[in-house]
Amino acid sequence: MSNINAFAALEAGGSLEAYSYDPGPLAAHDVEIDVVACGVCHSDLSMINNDWRASRYPLIPGHEAVGRIRAKGASVTTLEVGQMVGVGWSAQSCQACQPCLSGTQQRCLSGVTTIRANGGFADRLRVQDIWAVPIPEGVDPVSAGPLFCGGITVFSPFVNYGLKPTDRVGVIGIGGLGHLALQFAKAWGCEVTAFTSSLDKMDELTEMGAHRVVNSRDKDALKAERGHFDFIISTVNVTLDWPAYLAALRPNGQLITVGIVGEPMGIPAGQLVAGGKSVGGSDTGAPHEVATMLEFCARHDIKPMVETFPMTDVNDAIKHLKSGKARYRIVLTNEE
Questions:
Q1: Which one of 57, 213, 265, 322 is at 20 to 30 Å from 118 when CA atoms are compared?
Q2: Among 2.60.40.3080, 3.10.20.310, 3.90.180.10, 1.10.238.10, what is the CATH number of 4-148+285-290+304-333?
């Protein structure tokens, strides 16, 4: 097959440059996808900058890719050439370790991320067949990319932590992840509160599903929320007044973080014990969870709010993301 044309960082923190590579023969359980669109995520920036000390260069970012299958390996039986699919953080899993056998393939002990396998800032990419999840009718392929990382990251806790339609839910941080969490929680039937420092988003937050908005920088406003919530999901990666949010939980309430805070959270044990409260975390999701999320999105007309850039303007898109002005996700598009 011909070379894949992509955009790669050649060194930590470098601008992306045109890069071409030979993918070699197509493995039996892999599919090759013509990329229609690919979201730009803060995790891409972390990998470009080697913030997690796990990057290898040349590095092709992109783990929110959507496109059509152009070729499939000899052992692929569940997907067809021409089918529209999406790919998230994971590209390979062994299918034999305990996490894989228990249906949590995203935690595979030898799994390979999409970026490590060569990501979606390209005209094509390859992944193992189970990680190419079909796009259902009613889901727009161009804007769907962020669902495969940001979307599943906030959807998975709703399922795995037992969120109920009668629950009172708070969402901390209304950005790329939080704006989807608001939509999911509203469609779930919950009372939804947005915790944000950007009160200029008030009308948008209400439209996306927030019944209430609380200024996260107002200590008195936080204090007034004591004992209100069954479930609070935090999408931020900075240190907050965690005891104040624990105090905002009802007995048996849960504070779940999907943001990777860079320092210990300092959770007071007394607050956990006194109210039977808990603090947890969540990563992404297994392929079957991604498929369920996509069906939920199609049923309730949930979609990311995106700004699009041509794939060739990838560095401009990254600058826009760094500026903090994106509302709410950025998507790169290839000409079909």
A1: 322
A2: 3.90.180.10
- Contact, 180 vs 149, CB < 8 A? no
In the chain, the amino acid numbered 26 is L
Q: How far is CA 8 from CA 17, 203, 309, in A?
A: 5, 38, 17
Which two tokens mark 40? 């730009």
Query: Based on the number of CB atoms within 10 Å of its own CB, is 26 exposed (0-12), middle (13-18) or buried (19 or more)?
Result: middle
pLDDT digits 0-9 by tens, 87-114: 999 999 999 999 999 999 999 999 999 9
Q: In this model, does residue 67 exceed pLDDT 80?
A: yes
Distance CA 89, CA 287 (A): 11
Cis bond leading into 58, ω under 30°?
yes
CB 258 within 8 A of CB 242: no
How far apart, in whole angstroms, are the C-alpha atoms of residue 181 and residue 328?
12
